[in-house]
Amino acid sequence: GGEALPPILDARICSDGSIVAFVWNSELYVVKTDCKSAPLQLTTGSRDSAVTNGLADYVAQEEMGRYEGYWISPDSTLVAFEQVDESGVPEYRIMHQGSDKVG
């Protein structure tokens, strides 16, 4: 029983192979590939909110074909990331064609 954990998203190995970066539960993490340390959380504040860290936003994916939301420096010492806050985006309910139900 119990609830399933959120999946790990966009896991990538850096160019020199020393770390793996990934997004879990809307936060960005890195872990060394030597398996000697626990994952290090790089971002905070997005869990259970409309904020995501390290994931490409909808417009970037759909209109620009950009699916990455974080970038690791060539020397693997820095990570740049996108933070998206959708708290101001209203939710619109859409009527399904041929149905009286709103989805």
Automatic annotation (TrEMBL):
In Pfam terms, one family for this protein is DPPIV_N
Q: Which Gene3D superfamilies match?
A: Dipeptidylpeptidase IV, N-terminal domain (2.140.10.30)
Which intervals hold domain Dipeptidylpeptidase IV N-terminal? 7-100
What are its GO biological-process terms? proteolysis
Give the GO molecular function terms: dipeptidyl-peptidase activity
Protein name, as recorded: Dipeptidylpeptidase IV N-terminal domain-containing protein
